[in-house]
Amino acid sequence: MKHALTVSLAVTALLIAATAQADDNDSGLYLGGGVGQFNIKVDDFDDVTTAVEEYDSDDTAWKAFAGWRMNRYFGVELAYINLGSPNDEILPDTFVEIETDGFAPYAVGTLPLGPFELFAKAGYFFHETDARLTTPLGTFNESDSGEDFTWSAGVGVTVFETVNLRLEYEQFDIESIDDANALWLTGSFRF
Prior knowledge:
Helices cover 12% and strands 67% of the residues.
């Protein structure tokens, strides 16, 4: 009888602790990753004749991130972002491939709406870019690094009390590129 009472109290205490932890998921660490489609467009290449057509391509992108939620409404996040290798033909038999990856710290604002949430992020993308021009005469490479403003917005849903799934549109304001954006599907685990 004493063992049954002790086991019952222990199980009750564990259930209360688990419930309290689930309800206290408004702040703390989260880890996640995502996959998306990166789109890039350059209408006007500097110092190149007008015979060059625009560069307009897309590729699969991915990212991994960690963040800290101060409360239900505000947090910070750091992401590693790989934007793939979009490739496009700009002249007959002349191709441009651009590979970009780097890190982005963000400030994150969230508006909870029950199990759903609206969110917006703003930060800077510190990136390395490798461009490859392939012509009948050979291949030419150029590398550059930079930091540019980025912002995103989207909608998320929390399932199983700790898993957060998001659909996110992100805009990168990269200098010398007319349009660079990504559509992401991400998932994270909130501890």
